[in-house]
Amino acid sequence: MTTGAFEDYDEHAATAAATAQTASGRRRILIAGTIGTAIEWYDFFIYGLIAPLVFDQLFFPKFDQLTATIAVFATFAVGFLARPLGGIVFGHFGDRLGRKSVLLCTLLMMGLATMSIGLLPTYASAGVAATIALVVLRFLQGFALGGESTAAILMAIETAPGNRRGFSAAVIQAAGPVGVVLASFAALAISRLPEADLLSWGWRVPFLISAVLVALGLHALAHRGERDLPRGEAG
Question: 3-state DSSP call for residue 203?
């Protein structure tokens, strides 16, 4: 992309949205985007932290230890493969419907997928259907995160004043590692449980906690205090 194209984006896509916001409104938007991003990264990476602890026994018990471990990390990789697709699809709808609508949709999708993982039956009770459901839910996690990452950063840029766009985008980027740290603490806490408790119910807790986090994120996004502004209107 040429320098002229970037300049066109700055002037055409962001200026109108930014000037329509008050300073307090911009802060609320940035805070809401930051909270949503942190929550989505918590949901995305809690899988990668919990799966190596127990998923080989719970969802891939028919494999030997090495093959089961490879299968666990293969399902983890499915989320990364889905992210570009989510970015493309939700980027398209963000231009047409507005970033807020996309953020609400992706946060809800991520939350439902994460909570559903926490409620999944294991291979022992549902057989291969449990493993397939795990892979599908992991794909939905990656699909949702791909859309959220695009929408949150664009929302921050488009509503920030010209001299704060880089800072606003950086804040959204920094929120991702915050979510990873929260997921790490959750994984550390349950890893200290006795093995029997960890395998029976403990591994589910960090996934189910997502219900509370997503409710907070949806509240923050739904009460941003401004109407959703598709890029077409901003121009």
Answer: helix
Query: What is the 8-class DSSP label of residue 162?
Result: G
* Residues 107-119 pLDDT 10s: 999 999 999 999 9
Q: How far is Cα 178 from Cα 168, in angstroms, rounded to an integer?
A: 16
**Any long-range contacts for 52-57 (C-beta under 8 Å, 24+ apart)?**
53/187, 53/190, 53/191, 53/198, 53/203, 54/198, 54/199, 54/203, 55/134, 57/199
C-alpha span between 40 and 32 (Å, rounded)? 12
At 235 the pLDDT is: 43
**Confidence band for 11, pLDDT divided at 50, 70 and 90:** very low
pLDDT of residue 223: 67
Sorted by sequence, the CB contacts under 8 Å of residue 192 that are 6+ apart come out as: none
The model's pLDDT over 39-75, given as tens digits with 9 standing for 90+, comes to 989 999 999 999 999 999 999 988 888 898 899 999 9
Q: Model pTM?
A: 0.82
State whether residue 193 is helix, strand or coil.
coil
Are residues 217 and 107 in contact, defined by beta-carbon separation less than 8 angstroms? yes
Q: Is 225 left (phi over 0), alpha (psi -120 to 50) or beta?
A: left
**End-to-end CA, the chain:** 20
- Could you please report the per-residue DSSP string of 52-102? HHHHHHHH-TTS-HHHHHHHHHHHHHHHHHHHHHHHHHHHHHHHHH-HHHH
Are the C-beta atoms of 47 and 138 separated by less than 8 Å? yes
